[in-house]
Write a structure and sequence with these properties.
The model has no long low-confidence stretch (mean pLDDT about 95). The protein has about 90 residues and is an alpha+beta fold. Strand 3 and strand 4 form a beta hairpin.
Length: about 90
Amino acid sequence: MTFAATRDQAVPDDVARLLASVPEWFGQPESNAEYIQAARSKETWTVRNAAGTVLGVLLVDRHYAHSIEIHLMVVDRELHGTGIGSAL
């Protein structure tokens, strides 16, 4: 299966769900709360399945027209190694 990332609306609930799927990388409640809050306002890119479920999220800061800074990238643990991260 080939995945594609698209610019999307804010998805803070999906960010919370995805962070919870990888607690060994995102196991700090305070930091997770900050990521979830950031997901309300930062430029958001997602990979979704055919049913519309968010499988991965990329939050970015666009400081200049020609570059971005990755704030957060998270992919559902069950789907690691399937190409979602590469699509993001």
